[in-house]
Amino acid sequence: MHKAASQMSPREHAIDLLARREYGREELRGRLLAKGHALEDIEQALEALADQGLQSDRRFAESFLRGRLMRGQGPVKMLAELGQRGVDRALAREALAELEREESVDWYRLASEALERRFGRELPADARERARRERFLAGRGFDFDQVREAIRALGDD
């Protein structure tokens, strides 16, 4: 029999959340605070979960980055979103570098593919249309060089 949500400890709530997907420590802390648990109890539970390997910011970052890569997002947006979720900047960069190695990520190719899916293969007709495409790619999280190269590559065919 499952306890009523109001009777669950911070640890039980956290495990219930982690059973569905990975969470970063900060995100999990926020969820547990919203459930009305005391901060001291939450901190003890989070520390124990991390010690037992049940919660890991590294694992969360890796899972998060893989999901964003599958959506066609760029590295700038990925790192920014991890930062918003409370993941340490150095840890986020390490996880991104590992993903790039494991998946042989080519950000330039991904930016070109995103551009082609959205706008087709034709070159922008004017500066306004070029700027629109640049904003699209920047909004997806690609950096200046990746955006510039994706647009330049359209003219290579």
Structure notes:
This protein is mainly α and 157 residues long. The chain folds into 3 domains: 47 residues, Winged helix-like DNA-binding domain superfamily/Winged helix DNA-binding domain (Arc Repressor Mutant, subunit A, Orthogonal Bundle); 47 residues, Orthogonal Bundle (Arc Repressor Mutant, subunit A); 48 residues, Winged helix-like DNA-binding domain superfamily/Winged helix DNA-binding domain (Arc Repressor Mutant, subunit A), CATH 1.10.10.10. Helices cover 69% and strands 0% of the residues. It is built from 9 helices and no strands. Helix 8 packs across helix 9. It is elongated and about 60 Å long. The chain starts with 9 loop residues before the first helix and ends with a helix.
Provide a quick synopsis of the model.
This protein has 157 residues and is mainly alpha-helical. It has three domains: 47 residues, Arc Repressor Mutant, subunit A (Orthogonal Bundle); 47 residues, Arc Repressor Mutant, subunit A; 48 residues, Orthogonal Bundle (Arc Repressor Mutant, subunit A), CATH 1.10.10.
Q: What do we call the CATH homologous superfamily of the largest domain? A: Winged helix-like DNA-binding domain superfamily/Winged helix DNA-binding domain
User: Which ranges are low-confidence, i.e. pLDDT below 50, for 5 or more consecutive residues?
Assistant: none
- Overall average pLDDT: 93
CATH class of the largest domain: Mainly Alpha
Please write the string of helix (H) and strand (E) elements.
Answer: HHHHHHHHH
In terms of DSSP E residues, the strand content is under 5%
At the fold tier of CATH, the topology name of the largest domain is Arc Repressor Mutant, subunit A
Tell me the count of domains.
3
Radius of gyration: 20 Å
Percent helix: 55-70%
Mind telling me which CATH architecture of the largest domain this is? Orthogonal Bundle
Number of helices: 9
Choose one word for the global shape.
Answer: elongated
**Total strand segments:** 0
